[in-house]
Task: structure prediction
Amino acid sequence: MAVFIVMGVSGVGKTTVGKLLTLQMDLPFYDADDFHPSGNVEKMKAGIPLQDEDRKDWLEILAGKISEWNQKGGAVLACSALKEKYRKQLQSIPEEELVWIYLHSTFELIKERLLLRKDHFFKPELLTSQFETLEPPTYGIHIDANASPEEIIPQIMQKLNNKPSRIGLYGLGVMGKSLALNMASKEVQVSVFNRNLKGVEEDVAKDFAATHINDFNFNWFDDPEKFVASLERPRNIVLMVNAGKTVDVVIESLLPYLEKNDLIIDGGNSHYKESGRREQFLNEKGILFLGTGISGGEEGALKGPSIMPGGEPKAYDRIGDILENIAAKDKNGKACCAYIGPGGAGHFVKMLHNGIEYAEMQFIAEIYHFMRFSLRLDQERIAGIYEKWNKEMRSYLLEISIEILRKKEKDEFLLDKILDAAKQKGTGGWSTKAALDLGVPLDTITSAVMARIISGKKEQRVMAAEIYKTKPDKKEFEKIEKSLFQAFKAEQIINHAIGFEMLKSASEEYRWDLNLSEISRIWTNGCIIKSGLMEDLVKFFSENKEDNLLLHKEIVDFMKDARQDLIIVTTQALQAVVPMPGMSAALNYFLSFTSAQSSANMIQAQRDYFGAHTYERVGRPRGEFFHTKW
Result:
């Protein structure tokens, strides 16, 4: 049993929709206007707005009728019910047995409809007072009445059927909300959950659903059992919570309500080793797991991120269509989402993405700093230079840096008001630690992490600058202009070569069989490090799966000339006492990589001298070791 109230201002189509709805549901139809006392009708005919006192008896009559109709099996009622207190007065039956269907439209459109009406006591001039009185409900079914009645009825029936959600999203932070809206916009039915802690997080899920009720019908929950029960079996749940212990706590809280073959997708920035552990733990309980990297920030999550899922292939097969549907699209229209590999592969690749991002951000910041304080260019000119560069680079990070440089606050550049102390969330540091575990160089990324750390020591730096009288020396921009761009392109290439070499080493070490070309492809859009170079890498790694990027012929041809530009800019900046940790790291890596003879023979001799660690000899097979009594 249930009574369905179709509500909204006069002229929105309550009666028409209500009558069509009764045909679908085989229920009687009633119009609330037919129950107005005669005094109310006379007032409305005279164009006099009704007051709350006028509505009191009318609402009491309707409340009694609603109870009566419900006992007889239900009904459909067309009623304005503009204020929340009116709706509460009509609540004469249990909440779950009274269904509100709110029709809404614009003032202009409804006024046009009312002007076309004939022989109706409601005057169009009363519409203004109705809109002023209207308090839209934060519950029920919301329908845009701009569509035809024939189009509206299927929408209502679909929402009334309340089919189980295809996917559940746990955690409505910035990224969680954006992903939920992205899925809903792709016609995926989503259940959303957020904890409800008094004074900390109250009614987050409820308010989120209410905010977007005119566009999407989210099933919202703050009870985990009901949240899980709202999902179709086998269940698919995306976790968008803080990395670390929180993920384990959430998983433990959900386990009592899960069944075999349910799937948990961790969409946060979890450590790849933790993802591998969680996959094994859940597999023992018959639960599937995907550790999924998601890049693109708030806007990417809403409009289309780059997605990197890792875990069992059968888990991806089940949810891949949704992930690919909400992902960004590459230049060929293919989703920037692909199965990465088993275990923690997805989160490892996301971690390395962030590491490359750290270095790219550092490069842009260093060159800006050099141009601003040594070459003495103003911010608008620097923005113009970056804009010119980006016609070739097509870099997202350059693009946003241009906007940052031009942003003003009360006629002053905002960048000058931002404290030069950078933060980090951990993925850059994780990349450095992972490189040490794998025994691979990670110069540019590590230098970027360390640069952020030293930037945080603001007070000490100010004190030291005063003691040492450190101030950038002036250099001539015209003498270094061409080299700047070439140096920037060179360090970007070196950084990507370093990053992809680490991916290759991890793939071999953990037997992930990573596809570097496919990883490059899903990084061509939706993510922070998308660029023209990334598009070139798709082809390079498809043709040269084992080669280092720096050994590719086209790269070699460019770097032979650009290395001198890199040297010029680095040395000029250092001579001007401008720190360039990222650029210096890129240059040192490149010089080390391209040097047939390094200084490591002295290091091996030293190690053997004080620790008898042995060494290899020139002209003898690798792996044959010697020791000298020094």
Residues 347 and 517 are 17 Å apart (CA to CA). The mean pLDDT is 92. The radius of gyration is 32 Å.
